[in-house]
Structures are given as C-alpha cells and as structure tokens.
Amino acid sequence: MLVIDATNLILGRLASFAAKKALEGEEIVIVNSEKAVISGKKDSIFEFYKQRRARGNPLKGPYYPRMPDRILRRAIRGMLPWHKPRGREAFKRVMCYIGIPEKYKNQEFISIKEADYSKLKKTGFITLGKLAEMLGAKVRW
C-alpha cells in the first residue's frame, strides 16, 4: 500500500502516477488532498471547474464534485479505462482523504519528485482547498 502526501504536488501529475500504480494492482491512499495544487491562472482554473460543475442537468447529471478529495479522485478516474472492468477495479483501490486520518498517522508518506510544485519555477497556482471553497464547498479542513 502506498500512502502519498499530496502537499504541494501538481494535481495532474499526482493523478497520473496514482492511476498507473492502481492499474498495476497497488492500493493507493492519498492524504492532504486539499493541499494539492493546480498550476495556472487562478481565474481561468476557477472558470474551467465552474463550467464543469454547471454542465448537464441537476437531476440526471453528469455530476462533478466540489470537495477537494473528490475532485482529486475524479481526476484519477479520468486517467483510468473507466468503461472496462480493470479500470473500475483499479479505481476501487484508490482512496483520497482531507487531512490525515488516524488510521494513517503512523504510516510513512511518500512524495513524488516529478510532481513537486515547489521545485518548479512557475508562478501561478491554486490549491484544491481554495478551489473547493470558490466552488461552494463547506470548509471542513
């Protein structure tokens, strides 16, 4: 089982790493999802996710989450072959949490060097926690 700390990790790179490991058969647990970052201009990122949430019919869907752990999990789902049984099985092996649950406090966390935002020289970013707040999520972190 891999326990990944999402603090300062880029959303897309973290999601692709987690999807690849889940397809290989590993259990993936991601903690501190609200601290993952999306690089780019804050306004354009917010508009993109706001448009995704507004798409479709409120009664029929498609539904898009507003909590940071669910947004991260949905990004991972987008990188899996969701319409095939192996993709659905892999998705069941991925869990994302806000903060660090008691169950994983004593575990050793890994970080992904390629996905670390602090090592890149980019300027604009927004955390998933801030994005979730802007989308209207109730702040519980």
Q: How would you portray this structure in words?
A:
This protein has 141 residues and is of the alpha/beta class. It has a single domain, classed as Ribosomal protein L13 (Ribosomal Protein L13p, Chain: A, Alpha-Beta Complex). It contains five helices and five strands. The protein has a three-stranded parallel sheet with strand order 1-2-4. A two-stranded antiparallel ribbon has the order 3-5. Strand 1, helix 1 (11-23) and strand 2 form a beta-alpha-beta unit. Helix 1 packs across helix 3 and helix 3 packs across helix 5. The protein is globular, with a radius of gyration of 15 Å. The model has no long low-confidence stretch (mean pLDDT 92).
Helical percentage: 25-40%
Q: How would you describe the shape?
A: globular
Query: In this structure, how is the largest beta sheet organized?
Result: 3 strands, parallel
Secondary structure tally: strands: 5
**CATH class identity:** Alpha Beta
CATH architecture: Alpha-Beta Complex
Unreliable stretches (pLDDT < 50, length at least 5) are none
CATH topology: Ribosomal Protein L13p, Chain: A
**C-alpha termini separation:** 24 Å
Q: What does the radius of gyration come to? A: 15 Å
Number of domain units? 1
CATH superfamily: Ribosomal protein L13
Q: Please state the average pLDDT score.
A: 92
**Proportion of β residues?**
5-15%
**Going across the major beta sheet, what is the strand order?**
1-2-4
Helices and strands, in order, run as EHEEHHHEEH
Keywords, please?
3-stranded parallel beta sheet; 141 residues; 37% helix; Ribosomal Protein L13p, Chain: A; alpha/beta
